[in-house]
């Protein structure tokens, strides 16, 4: 009886936590199909706000900016961060510790500090703020996450793998691409996903380094939050669905491949 009550309490506690996290998202999805502008009163089913979303040039441009910057920042930061992590794994301890200490600064600093620093940096160089400055800023704060994701995996590898490959006739580049990289692919993918998420979600840094006429989804939502606009619900619902599909694919596809491998 006591054990049964304990399970009931723990299940109820977990249910309340999940409800606290996901109920606002469910409400947002439901009211994205509301026929009125009200965000609290349901007046009937309608796709009006989705139609307005896709006919809004400002929103579509913000979506394009957001995903293009996220994809480019993820690709560049993943390559740079992975190569940096490989180099650090082979470097002297003093150099490695100094670089890692500098690498931690963008993550330990409050976003507002990083944002002001980047804004002053671009201003001092007389670089016009806009799409390029936002992209550079996103690359800058994504690289540390990639390094921290890849470096622990590199430490688990045999340090003689690259040397053994080169002894067998491989060039340093071939040893990297055909021996080291395949071993750390899960860590590289993990770092890329974190970088993509950070770029997609960023507001503070983007707000300070962008210029007139260039905005991402987070900046657009901020500017629209001061007035009732259910189109935000439609846009947020689409993002939630996309992220959910990606997460399902990332988690389900490897399981299906394992099952196929076991069956063979």
Distinctive features:
single chain, 264 residues, mainly alpha, 80% helix, globular
Total helical elements: 11
From the structure provided, what is the oligomeric state, counting identical versus distinct chains? single chain
How much of the sequence is in beta strands? under 5%
Distance between the termini: 46 Å
Please state the structural category: mainly alpha
Radius of gyration: 23 Å
Mean pLDDT value:
84
Summarize the helix and strand pattern as letters. Answer: HHHHHHHHHHH
How can the largest sheet be summarized?
Answer: none
Which percent bin holds the helix content? over 70%
Uncertain residue segments: none
Number of strands: 0
Rough outline = globular
Give an overview in words:
The chain is mainly α and 264 residues long. It is built from 11 helices and no strands. It has helices spanning 2-31, 48-55, 57-90, 93-108, 111-124, 131-155, 161-167, 172-201, 204-209, 217-224, 231-263. Helix 1 crosses helix 11 (231-263) and helix 7 (161-167) runs antiparallel to helix 8. The radius of gyration is 23 Å and the shape is globular. The two termini are 46 Å apart. 24% of the residues are buried.
Give the SSE layout.
Elements: H1 2-31, H2 48-55, H3 57-90, H4 93-108, H5 111-124, H6 131-155, H7 161-167, H8 172-201, H9 204-209, H10 217-224, H11 231-263
